[in-house]
Amino acid sequence: MGLELTRDTLRFERFAGRGEEQVTIEGEATLPGSMRDAVTVLSVQAQAHLTDAQAGNGEAGVRGRVCFQVLYTQGDLTRIRTLETTCDFSHTLPLLGAQPGMRLNADAVVQETEGSAGSGRITLRALLEIRLEVFEVSERELISGASMPDQPENLQLRMQRISCCMAENIGRGSVTVREEFDLPQRLGVGEVLCATATATAGEPAGGNGRVSVSGVIELHVLHRPKNGGDALIPTVHELPYELSIDARVPEGVLPQAIAEVTDVMADSVESERNRTLRAEAEVRVTLRLCSEREMEAVEDLYSLSGPVLEPVSEELELHTAEAAADVRESVRIQAALGPDAPPAGLVLAAFAQPTLTGLTPSGRRLDAEGIMNVTLVYLPQDSDIPYAVHTREPFSMTFPVEAKEGISGYAYAIETSPGPSTSDRVEIRCVLGLHTRQHGTQRVRIVTDVTQNPEEKQERGFVIVWPQTGESRWDTARRLRVAQESLRPAGKNALLALRR
């Protein structure tokens, strides 16, 4: 009896480990004006951008920068000023299972910020949560087919379909977009205080080594009011962008474009009829490709007579899918001022930094819970000197995401605006973005070889057998060395088989 085996090589990606760590990043800047001026820090906001992430031996190193935006008063305590500064950082954190050359997914999210001023300088701190996922690429030789040309009916063969996914970043590019917008006089806006932006990307297109990506940058600008004593004025603008990236994409495969605004600047100039906003934003687009492969492989086999065939198998965990999504939803929060805060008069501005504490899939929706770090800047009753309150408020909301268990993600504030207020409480409307990442995994047992043991003596003729608990029809037939189709019901869960 001649057994012929067909071999193939399975190249697959395996989820090797996950890690997260909180890191404090500090920055410092010089304040303009006299060192003796009184300074009050009202609000500190920050965005984190990773520029590199590399896996090492049981660790991972990340590099990036934190962009701080500060609202403060100095000297004239009735006038709100702004300051922006950038702090580069690098950090190494332990990551069990990591080895050099492994692929990393890395995110850095700002959870808390604070600032203090003295002697003409301002010290800034941002608490980052760095999240890492590491993947290992492996190869295994497996049996993809088996046959007995001389006795084809003697071989019982069960096949399985194996699916796996290999994800990689295939290209990255940046583009700077400049645009001007007219701000009508009726808005009553003055100078620009600060600006933030988020970006979305459409489906990539193109070929021959060049991929085109287009999308929209959503710019949020906070202006000083033209008339003193009024609330700060937010405006929203859209900047379309387009860029071309060097990348080779296999035919029939669609990569995913991930867009991130890495820098934004805005100022305005006044003319006789209106005020013109000049904006500049840099967007970075990463192309990620998840190549899927499917193949047939032997799951189990045995022979009806002759040498006993015993498959040599190995269990693998395969990475089968990777999907990222960005959605947004709004939530309203009631923020209390606290017993020591002066009663609120006019609310000038509100800022929020969300931190997720839990994500729960619920059908086609994703329930999220977390803590919102809220900063309120307001004028107390009978005062024209801005006052700031920092508070933490729990929140819960639902995002339109179809998800499964094991989904991970982080939330970020897109827009925050104050609503109705009383002397001790302010309602805040927050538009939050949610970035999610979800992986598919599959545990499979592959056959890597087949051994042939001497034939065992066994009785011929009809045999009645009662399957063992949890034993499948295939397992029963394999144990008896008969074909599955020869098994017949014999009453009371028994099976009748004919051994030839």
Strand content: over 45%
Low-confidence stretches: none
Largest sheet: 4 strands, antiparallel
- SSE arrangement, N to C: EEEEEEEEEEEEEEEEEEEEHEE
Radius of gyration: 32 Å
What would the average pLDDT be, to the nearest integer?
A: 90
Number of DSSP strands? 22
Query: Which percent bin holds the helix content?
Result: under 10%
| Alpha-carbon distance between the two ends | 17 Å
Number of alpha- plus pi-helical segments: 1
Derived from helix and strand composition plus strand pairing, the structural class reads mainly beta
Q: Tell me the overall shape.
A: elongated
What layout of secondary structure does this protein have?
Layout: E1 4-30, E2 39-55, E3 59-74, E4 76-94, E5 103-118, E6 121-147, E7 155-184, E8 189-201, E9 205-207, E10 210-225, E11 233-246, E12 256-270, E13 274-303, E14 308-336, E15 344-362, E16 365-380, E17 387-399, E18 408-421, E19 425-453, E20 461-465, H1 473-480, E21 488-489, E22 495-499
Antiparallel strand pairs: 1-6, 2-3, 3-4, 5-6, 7-13, 8-10, 9-10, 10-11, 12-13, 14-19, 15-16, 16-17, 18-19, 20-22, 21-22
Structure report:
There is one protein chain. The protein is an all-beta fold and 500 residues long. Among the domains are: 11-140, no CATH class; 459-500, no CATH class. The chain is built from one helix and 22 strands. It has one helix spanning 473-480; strands spanning 4-30, 39-55, 59-74, 76-94, 103-118, 121-147, 155-184, 189-201, 205-207, 210-225, 233-246, 256-270, 274-303, 308-336, 344-362, 365-380, 387-399, 408-421, 425-453, 461-465, 488-489, 495-499. Strands 8, 9, 10 and 11 form a four-stranded antiparallel β-sheet that branches. Strands 1-6-5 form a three-stranded antiparallel β-sheet, with no helix packed on it. Strands 2-3-4 form a three-stranded antiparallel β-sheet, with no helix packed on it. β12 and β13 form a beta hairpin. The longest helix is centred in the C-terminal third of the chain and has 8 residues, at 473-480.
